[in-house]
Design goal:
The structure is a single chain. The chain is an alpha/beta fold. The protein has 2 domains: 31 residues; 319 residues, 3-Layer(aba) Sandwich (Aminopeptidase). Helix content is 37%, strand content 14%. The protein has 10 helices and 8 strands. The strands form 2 sheets. Strands 2-3-5-4-6-8 form a 6-stranded mixed β-sheet, sandwiched between helices. It is globular, with a radius of gyration of 20 Å. It binds zinc ion.
């Protein structure tokens, strides 16, 4: 995924607000012990409050990471497809493969999807929840400046792990979903070139949407929810400028109901948005939801991207300050994107946020002609 454009570097913001909130809490409390409790409560993620199990999701991340780096077309990614398919079958589901050779790249696209039946499994409306499971290619990249292998625990591992948990939860759920739900494991999201290239990224979702269009299924799809960069410590979700605002609002409401509003839509900051507006720039993140939008499906991206990009990948202009916020580890596309950067509660929170929003998503999907 890529932001367009490169965000203007700004001094860390948000910390000030946190410090202010914290000091007002302190004023209202009298003991240090209570303060310590509050600090712990504020730094943990409200993950466990729902049916999605962070421990189970983390086990799925570990299983994927054990295959090593998993770029598009690799043997390791093929093993990952088999793993995901096997886990879905264990749940009693019937996953389907959409595999197609990408002629230019001479690599096999392996999309995988599974339906959780609604009231009308054959012709009824569909809610798609997706996540890419390929990892950034690094071998042969002259720009690659890191010593260790790129595992992509968060970027490529966390999203599909949460989808597997959503499969389990939705299969067991009472009442069963009224609309059909497709859980879609997306191949070839990452740009094959190190720098983002529109012609060499989002190849999996492009082929998938084209197939759905060719087979006249596309009109059944009423909403697409994309999870990307899932599972980081101090997990948050940014407000993407390329997402459907009605769908975006559903997740703000769900987060509020969970008491987790502070994790949602802090970035981009009002100052950043002002800057983009002043430059005539439309803020947004390029990711698989753009493809669904292009094919006419209202889409929303839930991503934890802002402040995760290390300074050497920020494309800074001379004199421009790097965006660094000590609250957020900057692991994106580096060898720091490994299991040690993850938090199982973050995986649970992402999944439980989707489940919290699910009744509203259902209404949205069923109401759309
Ligand atoms: Zn990536």
């Amino acid at each position: 995924m890529s932001t367009s454009p490169t965000p203007k570097a700004t001094a860390p913001v948000g910390n000030g607000a946190n410090v202010l909130a914290m000091s007002s809490i302190v004023r209202r409390t009298t003991t240090l012990a209570l303060f310590a409790l509050i600090v712990v409560a504020c730094t943990q993620c409200g993950g466990p409050s729902g049916p999605v199990d962070g421990g189970k999701a983390m086990a799925h991340v570990k299983a994927q990471v054990a295959f090593g780096s998993r770029p598009f077309g690799s043997e390791a990614l093929g093993k990952t497809t088999d793993y995901l398919e096997g886990e879905l079958k264990k749940l009693g589901l019937a996953p389907q493969r959409h595999e197609v050779m990408h002629e230019k790249e001479k690599k096999l696209i392996r999309n995988l999807y599974v339906q959780i039946d609604g009231d009308d499994p054959k012709a009824g409306p569909v809610l798609v929840i997706g996540a890419h499971y390929d990892t950034k290619v690094y071998a042969g990249c002259v720009e690659w400046k890191h010593s260790g292998p790129f595992l992509g625990a968060i970027d490529g591992g966390g999203g599909p792990a949460v989808l597997l948990e959503l499969a389990r939860v939705l299969k067991e759920r009472t009442p069963k979903p009224k609309c059909n739900v497709w859980l879609y494991f997306i191949d070839a999201e990452e740009s094959i070139t190190w720098e983002w290239n529109d012609e060499k990224a989002l190849l999996g979702s492009q082929a998938f949407c084209q197939m759905l269009s060719d087979t006249k299924q596309l009109s059944r799809l009423k909403a697409f929810v994309l999870l990307d960069l899932i599972g980081s410590k101090n997990y948050k979700i940014d407000k993407d400028g390329n997402s459907d605002s009605r769908l975006q609002a559903l997740f703000a409401t769900a987060a509020k109901e969970m008491g987790e509003s502070s994790r949602v839509y802090e970035f981009p900051t009002p100052q950043e948005l002002d800057y983009y507006t002043s430059q005539g720039i439309k803020w947004g993140t390029k990711d698989d939801h753009n493809m669904f939008t292009r094919f006419g499906v209202p889409s929303v991206l839930l991503i934890d991207f802002a402040r995760r990009v290390p300074p050497h990948l920020q494309n800074l202009k001379p004199g421009q300050a790097a965006q660094i916020d000590p609250r957020f580890q900057q692991w994106w596309h580096t060898d720091e994107d490994d299991l040690s950067a993850m938090d199982s509660d973050a995986l649970a929170f992402a999944g439980n946020l989707v489940m919290q929003a699910f009744p509203a998503l259902e209404i949205h999907v069923l109401g759309k002609k």
